[in-house]
Amino acid sequence: MDASTQSTELTGSFTAAAWDRIAPIMAEIEALPLLTRLSDGTLPPEIFRHYILQDALYLKHYARCLAIVAAKAPDNAQVLRFLGSAQKAITVEQGLHAGFLTQFGITAADLTSAEPSPTCFAYTNFLLATAYHRSYAVALSAILPCFWIYWHVGEAIKNQPVVEGNAFQAWINTYGDPQFAAGAREVIALTDIAARAASPAERTEMTDAFVRASQYEWMFWDSAWRLETWPV
């Protein structure tokens, strides 16, 4: 089951409505040159190197967001379910990073000295602030796009013809992997459970957080394509 099929099966749910809301953003994401050239293997190595370094920095903060969100869950069942899905995603991504950091000659010293780009800095601070200061339901909605959009993109690229010798095939395999999909489905399901218990005002906040994080997902890939650095 791909991410588009999943959204269809969720018809009438909070997450289905949220996914429909970001349709214009998803159209822009699917057209990003970084993703189209990653898919066909023509992405310049320096751009991918920039992206994977920023993604490693992002994941360090994202993991902390997931821990905060889990701590806010209303019962032990949801705590354990969320931690399980989060662990799946983090384990998969850390394995991916380890391979690519070696493949593209990124050392431990490079990681230690790397500075988050303006977009990476803004996105991770948005997630951390939302996780700390908003409700469990709103925080879930903020962290969900990273799971769902990567699943969607990974499935879409995976279903295209394989390009022989594509240096980025491991990235495609990771986000099209059933283990990553399972983690995404769990977080989608938990978000719908939280939405059913939320007030109308809180559901509006949930939608706003979901849309903002989806905008940041586009910005993150676009900033890597532009090799974004601090302007001054």
Automatic annotation (TrEMBL):
One short Pfam family name for this protein?
A: TENA_THI-4
Q: Which UniProt keywords apply?
A: Hydrolase, Thiamine biosynthesis
Q: For this UniProt entry, what's an example GO CC term?
A: cytosol
- Reaction it catalyzes: thiamine + H2O = 5-(2-hydroxyethyl)-4-methylthiazole + 4-amino-5-hydroxymethyl-2-methylpyrimidine + H(+); 4-amino-5-aminomethyl-2-methylpyrimidine + H2O = 4-amino-5-hydroxymethyl-2-methylpyrimidine + NH4(+)
Hydrolase found in the keyword field: yes
One term of GO molecular function: thiaminase activity
Against InterPro entries, the record matches this protein to: Haem_Oase-like_multi-hlx, Thiaminase-2/PQQC, Thiaminase_II, Thiamine_Salvage_TenA
The record's family statement is:
Belongs to the TenA family.
Q: Which purpose does this protein serve, as stated in its record?
A: Catalyzes an amino-pyrimidine hydrolysis reaction at the C5' of the pyrimidine moiety of thiamine compounds, a reaction that is part of a thiamine salvage pathway.
Q: Which protein, by its recorded name, is this?
A: Aminopyrimidine aminohydrolase
**Origin organism of this chain?**
Rhizobium phaseoli
Q: Which gene encodes it?
A: tenA
